[in-house]
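Q: What residues go here?
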């Protein structure tokens, strides 16, 4: 789910307080983004979906959440192809993967 060596390097470079703040900010913003993704998929707003999952992929990547980053990029690609069926299928996967990724990040960070 995540690249522990890279996460630990960031923890060492940035310090525990700053990393904890980044993780908390990520939890908040990505939770809001997940809600947006659900709505955009439901409403067929694929341009908006593409933008949100692109932002989610960047944020996930910055915290070394490799599986979530890949899922977001795949969903972004499907949205850009206007493949609503793939977007709908990937939305459920994204929900579950986000939950697991956030939990793993919290465990690794001791939060």
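A:
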């Amino acid at each position: 789910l995540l690249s522990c060596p890279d996460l630990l390097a960031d923890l060492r470079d940035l310090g525990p307080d700053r990393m904890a703040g980044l993780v908390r900010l990520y939890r908040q913003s990505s939770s809001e983004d997940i809600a947006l993704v659900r709505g955009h998929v439901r409403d067929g707003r694929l341009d908006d979906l593409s933008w949100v999952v692109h932002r989610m992929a960047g944020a996930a990547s910055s915290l070394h959440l490799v599986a979530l980053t890949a899922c977001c990029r795949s969903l972004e690609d499907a949205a850009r192809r206007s493949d609503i069926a793939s977007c709908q299928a990937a939305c459920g996967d994204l929900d579950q993967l986000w939950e697991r990724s956030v939990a793993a990040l919290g465990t690794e960070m001791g939060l």
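A: Context that may help when evaluating the design: The chain has a mean pLDDT of 93. The chain has five helices and no strands.
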